[in-house]
Amino acid sequence: MRSQKLWQPRRLLATPSALTWDHGAAIVARATTLGVPVTALPSDRLKLDFPTDSRRTYAEAKATLALVVAPPSKRKLQPIAPSADWRIDLAEGCPAHCGYCYLAGSLKGPPITRVYANLPEILAELPAHLGQGTVTSRSTARAHEGTTFEASCYTDPLGIEHVTGSLSALIAHFGAWEADVQLRFTTKFDAVEPLLTLDHRGRTRMRASINPAAYARFEGGTSPVAARLVALRKMADAGYRIGLTIAPIIAAKGWREAYGELLAEASRVLADIPDVTIELITHRYTPGSKAVLETWYPGSSLDLGMANRTEKRTKFGSIKYVYDADTMRALRTFFHDEIAAKLPHARILYWT
After folding, report:
1. Is-above-0.85 flag for pTM?
2. H or E element: which one contains 101?
3. H-helix or E-strand containing 133?
4. Which of 128, 316, 325, 346 has the fewest CB atoms lying closer than 10 Å?
């Protein structure tokens, strides 16, 4: 089975403050071992000299890793419903090239990946949030998960783990934390080998983000879905909790057949695993993310039109475009029926 080659950034830019942290120095050492050129910057300001051409800027930014210190505003934990109680950010940005990327339009500037060196300060924020969330901490249906912390909101932590080591450190921290907690992360990559022997104590749940093979062209630079499922099985066999994130669900022509085959493939790999969670997230976009994605991926066949779409306002007053009620109803009914038939032991956490 083909596995995606590990991401190799073309350069690592390290700020002076980041280099004062042991974790930052360890990241530099990892990068050097991998043959990644490291530039020690003269100041903590990331002054990036990118081409004026938008496509070249995108390409160079995506090939750049920056080692920085997370400021207090980035360390402050935020609610992340419906996934988990709280969000932990180990990095910002992702090496993948997904045509529907939900970070497009929400992150400022060129899409470089920033990884945080001050991991101890990030971990120090966690204890004060025990029992304080609103998703699992106070949910009858999910209270058994304890206080949950999501590590993949602004990055794919497994996609950069071979350079950073941050995910392994976080898993080990949760394993040693004698509290009713659970770490969660989702990924489109399969390089789980560094995680398999960690003393996780069952306090981490990995989910594989999957979509039908017909949509693989929208997920450049990621591991094949079959490889992600095999990696998920390896994690389950190593005692980790596991799950599936089916996202974004795209109601393109032939979607029933495509997602039916996807769920059948997942069933073949995971049918005997007793505790599998499933998160169902339909495709949506904002005017801002659409504009950015059309710049990043001109000529993409991903449908960003208004057919079968409706406008929805968020609690902050911003606009996003989601599928209309009839399409949503058809999708939701299909997935609930198919999951009940093919993965009857799985637990659907939410639909959105």
Report:
1. yes
2. none
3. none
4. 316
